[in-house]
């Protein structure tokens, strides 16, 4: 199986001089400005940032749903002009087709490619087996738990053998335990398939645990504030999350994001002590705290 | 928490323990080791279906109470604002029912009405559903057709009767046309509504899996709209019967609506009630048929 799936690494994503603006009645609103990122073939890269910073916008541009206002997105040197099966996508809301069974969902990309029924059924079964879902192939998505739905979502996106996998806060709606297991499953699949992954999340631990590199974005208008390599060795284990190395990375990223979150919430904050604020702020608006 | 060792072996297939924890498996039901007896099975069945049984029992009682009240009101010829003096009793209606089912003419009335509904409603579905789908997908078609539809929609099908008689060469055709009109607009409007509610994320998901325009239409827009299409069909079927009966009463020579009106003219009061009950039963039956069809077409929505 691994020989079939594991081709030579591919999927070099490059985003250059990227900016994206929305037209509104008050004029253009800049969502993302002056951004350069890249993902090397086979690399796992995360984007973190405060909410509303445009990280999902950036991912949607790589997927081909949004056209950059300036700049260019390329995958393996080819310009991205629209969505394609070469760039698999996993959504936070799972977005499985409710009228298709689990297996039919996984088959969808292969069906679109014109693969004959028996062949794609076999392929879908193999993939579902890999994700431990073979028993549920005939279930409709509604009957599955969130974690199972998202496993189907990942398997569906991988079924067509994309060059890159794009994930938009895929585990955001899952409970903590399920999330940890899903992270392991994703790592596992990524290591087998050796494809490039671009992963958007607001969970710093998740970003560090999964990634080779993490981009941290500024508050809106979003741009890259910092690029942090994650030198933790692989395979990674849950216990690593307690290591001093991990915690140092976490502390660094935390402070970067905290600055940006505060900016996003209330502009510049000068006099108030940041340490006190970030506890108080949790879940409240800045105005409430002051 | 699952053991961290699981991640260390990427060559293994998915770790089973991790998967068991990953989602609570809804299908995993622990079965007792010995097969349960019929008595326990029966008890269990009763417990699971108690709500349904209760509703059925109360339903039967309420129908019987209705018949009893009807019977009392008519036997004592109650006059209290409304006059029950000439209203047939349930037993009289039952007698005329027994007579009618041996009368080929009555059966013909019913068959003709059913045929009109079948043709009119089918045409409305065949035109309304695709038109709604296309209007929902292509803005220009929507912009052209929607204003006309909005102007014609509030006109009740009954108001079309004189125009229909002028438009169509035969009475039969004009009645079918009225039936068609009655069901057409609910079907069109609900299909359009369904199209407008299709989750754009599902369209995106299909696009990232390599789906092109036509496949997205067939694999996403159409199935996503189906629940609303069936709402439209159910409502449309109801309005089709309303329109049919009105048209038959005004311009018909046959049909269950005509039968009911004729009974009034001929002072056969029991037949009026019989006609009404027949219309009710037929309407109920046809909406049950549509609901059944809906469950067949949308298996993901049942249970």
Q: Brief overview, please?
A:
By secondary structure, chain A is α/β, with parallel strands linked by helices. Chain A has ten helices and ten strands. In chain A, a hairpin with a 2-residue loop joins strand 1 and strand 2.
Structure notes:
The complex is a heterodimer of chains A (290) and B (303). Chain A contains 10 helices and 10 strands. By secondary structure, chain A is an alpha/beta fold. The longest helix of chain A has 23 residues, at 244-266. Chain A is globular, with a radius of gyration of 20 Å. Mean pLDDT of chain A is 86; it is low at 1-7 and 268-290. Chain B is 74% helix and 1% strand. Chain B has helices at 16-22, 38-48, 50-75, 90-101, 104-137, 139-152, 161-167, 171-196, 200-208, 213-251, 256-265, 269-297; strands spanning 79-80, 82-83. Chain B has a two-stranded antiparallel sheet. In chain B, helix 10 (213-251) packs antiparallel against helix 12 (269-297). Classes of the chains: A alpha/beta (290), B mainly alpha (303). Chains A and B meet through strand 6, helix 3, helix 5 and helix 6 of A and helix 1, helix 9 and helix 10 of B.
């Amino acid at each position: 199986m691994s020989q079939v799936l594991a081709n030579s690494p591919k999927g070099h994503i490059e985003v250059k001089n990227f900016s994206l603006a929305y037209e509104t009645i008050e004029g253009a609103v800049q969502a993302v400005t002056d951004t350069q990122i890249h993902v090397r073939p086979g690399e796992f890269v995360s984007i973190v940032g405060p909410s509303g910073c445009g990280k999902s916008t950036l991912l949607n541009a790589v997927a081909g749903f949004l056209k950059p206002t300036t700049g260019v997105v390329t995958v393996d040197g080819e310009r991205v002009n629209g969505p394609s099966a070469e760039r698999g996508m996993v959504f936070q809301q799972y977005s499985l087709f409710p009228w298709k069974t689990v297996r039919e969902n996984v088959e969808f990309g292969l069906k679109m490619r014109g693969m004959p029924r028996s062949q794609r059924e076999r392929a879908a079964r193999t993939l579902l087996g890999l994700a431990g879902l073979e028993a549920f192939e005939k279930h409709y998505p509604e009957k599955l738990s969130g974690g199972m739905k998202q496993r189907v979502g990942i398997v569906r996106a991988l079924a067509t053998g994309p060059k890159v996998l794009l994930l938009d806060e895929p585990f955001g709606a899952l409970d903590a335990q399920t999330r940890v297991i899903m992270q392991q499953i994703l790592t596992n699949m990524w290591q087998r398939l050796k494809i490039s992954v671009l992963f958007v999340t607001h969970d710093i631990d998740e970003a560090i645990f999964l990634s080779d590199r993490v981009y941290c974005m500024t508050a809106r208008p979003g741009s890259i504030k910092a690029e942090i390599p994650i030198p933790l060795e692989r395979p990674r284990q849950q216990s690593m999350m307690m290591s001093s190395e991990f915690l140092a990375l976490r502390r660094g990223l935390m402070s970067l994001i905290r600055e940006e979150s505060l900016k996003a919430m209330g502009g510049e904050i000068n006099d108030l002590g940041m340490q006190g604020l970030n506890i108080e702020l949790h879940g409240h608006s800045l105005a409430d705290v002051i | 928490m699952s053991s961290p060792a699981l991640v260390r072996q990427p060559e293994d297939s998915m770790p089973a323990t991790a998967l068991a924890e990953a989602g609570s498996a809804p299908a995993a039901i622990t079965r007792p080791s010995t097969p349960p007896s019929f008595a326990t099975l029966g008890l269990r069945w009763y417990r699971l279906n108690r709500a349904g049984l209760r509703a059925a029992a109360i339903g039967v009682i309420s129908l019987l109470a209705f018949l009893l009240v009807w019977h009392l009101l008519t036997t004592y010829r109650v006059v209290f604002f409304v006059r029950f003096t000439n209203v047939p009793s349930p037993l009289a209606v039952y007698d005329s029912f027994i007579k009618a089912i041996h009368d080929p003419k009555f059966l013909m009335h019913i068959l003709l009405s059913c045929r009109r509904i079948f043709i009119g409603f089918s045409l409305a579905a065949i035109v309304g559903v695709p038109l709604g789908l296309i209007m929902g997908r292509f803005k220009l078609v929507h912009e052209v057709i929607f204003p006309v539809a909005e102007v014609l929609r509030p006109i009740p099908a009954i108001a079309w009767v004189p125009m229909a008689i002028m438009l169509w060469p035969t009475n039969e055709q004009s009645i079918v046309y009225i039936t068609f009109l009655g069901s057409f607009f609910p079907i069109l409007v609900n299909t359009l509504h369904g199209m407008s509610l299709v989750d754009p994320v599902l369209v995106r998901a299909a696009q990232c899996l390599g789906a092109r325009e036509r496949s997205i239409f067939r694999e996403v827009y159409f199935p996503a709209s189906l629940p609303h299409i069936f709402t439209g069909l159910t409502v449309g079927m109801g309005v089709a019967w309303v329109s049919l009966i009105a048209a038959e009463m005004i311009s018909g020579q046959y049909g269950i609506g005509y039968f009911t009106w004729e009974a009034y003219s001929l002072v056969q009061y029991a037949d009026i009630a019989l006609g009404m009950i027949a219309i009710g039963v037929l309407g109920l039956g046809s909406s049950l048929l549509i609901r059944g069809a809906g469950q067949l077409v949308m298996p993901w929505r049942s249970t």
